[in-house]
Amino acid sequence: MTTPIPVEGFELLHLTFLGVKREVYRAGTGPGVIVMHEIPGITPEVARFARFVRDAGFTVFMPSLFGTPNRPMTKPYALAEIARTCIDREFRIFAADSTSPIIDWLRALCAAAHAELGGPGVGAIGMCMTGNFALALMVEPSMMAPVLSQPSLPAGITRRQRSALHLSPEDLVLVKRRSTEEGVPLLAMRFTEDPVCRKERFDRLRSELGSGVETIEIDSSPGNAHRIPRTAHSVVTTDLVDDAGHPTRVALDRVLSFFRERLSPAA
Asked: What is the residue extent of each domain of the chain?
C-alpha cells in the first residue's frame, strides 16, 4: 500500500469520478478553485501558490495528476514526467485540435465542488502542460473563472502547433458560446520570450475570444527592467518573485482579484 504524501496545509482526499480514483489535496473555505499543477508535479512552489489562493478566501482542490507531491523541480525529474505523460492515454500532448481525456474527470471535479460549495461557480488555473485545461473546463457550466498560466500544449515546433489551443472543434464552439453569450471571461499569462508558450497561441486566443480574454505578457526580453531571464516560464510558481511591484507578483495579485470578481456571491 502506498504511503500517503502530505502537503503542508492541505487535507489529502481520494475522490472518484467516472470510475477513476485520484488523490486531491484540499484546503480553505469559500468558493472552489481547482489548481492544476505543472510539470513535473506538485512542487513546493506549486503548493506555495495554492496556499496563496487558499489564504485569499477560497477552497482549493489540487488534484495530483502526475509526479510526486513535494518533490522539488529538477531537469531530470521534469524530463521523466514529460516522457511518462507522452504515453499516458489521458494526455494527448501533441494534439492540436483535440482535448485530453483527463478533462472529463476534471470537469466532474468542478461540478462536484460547485454542488458542495454553491455560489456563482468555481474557478481554475492550469499551468504549463495543464494550462490549456482551464480553457477546456469552460465547457463545464460551473466554470466561471478560468486562468491559463503559460499554456504549453500542444507540444511541437510547427507554426500550427504553436498557435493551437489543444481543444477539440466541438469544445471550441462551446467555449466561444460561453464567452460571447454568457460573458464568461478568460485570463491568460506568459513571459514574452517563453519558447514553450509562444506569442502565436495568445494571438489565437485573442482571435477566437476577442474582448473575452484578458492577457498578461511579462517582458523577459534581454535588458528588461526587472532582469527576468529569457528562460522564465512559470509565472506564479518557479519564476515568481514575491516582491511588491514585480511583474510576477502583479500577475499573481491579478489572478486572485480575478477569482474574487468572478466567484464572490455578488458576481
From this structure: 11-263
Find residue 17's DSSP bridge partners.
20
Q: Which residues contact 244 (CB under 8 A, 6 or more apart)?
A: none
Rounded to the nearest integer, the mean pLDDT of the chain is 94
Q: How do the residues of the chain divide into helix, strand and coil, expressed in percent and rounded to 5?
A: 35, 20, 45
Q: Give the span between the Cα atoms of 234 and 224, in whole angstroms.
A: 17
CB 86 within 8 Å of CB 227: no
pLDDT per position as a tens digit, 121-137? 999 999 999 999 999 99
Specify the pTM: 0.95
- Sign of dihedral through CA atoms 52, 53, 57, 59? negative
Count of H-run helices and E-run strands, the chain: 8, 8
Tell me: the pLDDT tens digits for 147-182? Answer: 999 999 888 778 888 899 999 999 999 999 999 999
11-263: which CATH topology? Rossmann fold (3.40.50)
Output the CA torsion 194→48→245→205 (10° steps).
Answer: 40
The arrangement of strands across the sheet holding 186-191 comes to: 11-17, 20-27, 59-63, 32-36, 122-127, 143-149, 186-191, 213-218
| pLDDT class of 1 with cuts at 50, 70, 90 | very low
Rounded to 5°, the CA angle 66-108-63 comes to 25
Terminal Cα-to-Cα distance of the chain (whole angstroms): 44
CA distances from 115 to 58, 119, 162, 264 (A): 15, 9, 36, 16
